[in-house]
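Contributing new complexes? Match this layout with zinc ion.
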Amino acid sequence: MKKQTHHKIFSEFARILARHSIAVSDSVLTAIEFFFSEDHHVSTEDVEHFARENNLGISKAEINKAFELLEKFGFATKRVFADGVQRYEHFHIGEHHDHLYCLKCGRIIEFYSSGLEEEQGDVAREHNFHAFSHKMQINGLCSQCFGEPSQEIPLSEVQAGGTFCITRIATRSGRFGGHGFSRRLNDLGLVPGAEGQVINNGRGMVIINCGSARIALRRGQSRKIMVALTN
Ligand SMILES: [Zn+2]
Ligand SMILES: [Zn+2]
Ligand SMILES: [Zn+2]
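Output block (do not edit by hand):
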């Protein structure tokens, strides 16, 4: 956000807090200022990272408090994309946009299409439905990621929703007992050529769907399964 706009909005926010006699710590204010200084989609992890880099000692609770207030007073909107991470974006009164989300690199592209907006209104009217808002998100691959669709990456890097084909298992005997790990994958049908989809890619686990069965893999294991993204 432009520096001037960012200051203007921050003081508007501070005025609202004062009017409602809401006292917040300096840490919460710093987290709020960080959000206003960023242009696009900010996650709580982004604020944590910023706080860590600058030795600011802002706690998770304070970050959550900051976003809670931003949302409550209509300065931020929560968005959840296919990776399941909660991100917040600026809420500008009277402005609207929709999103393209890259399943491979997590890139978020904002767009506005007047045609799509009108069509959505028409659909609602056809159903005698009074629409107040909508969220439109298109999942896929950005031009950079689509440029190398057959590139090999570890399964751990595939975002939720991404479809893949296993290219090889990168075992080095050791941590997973080498052959034992390959055999286990073999039993699960996770062999080169097998196709699947990532259902959830969280911190500790990667959940995939392969041959219509859900399989939970530890992160470390998913790093050893090399895949190519499919469409
Ligand atoms: Zn829209
Ligand atoms: Zn991408
Ligand atoms: Zn956005």
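Reviewers usually confirm one structural detail per submission. For this one: Helices lie at 3-19, 26-37, 44-53, 60-72, 114-126, 143-146, 179-187, 219-222.
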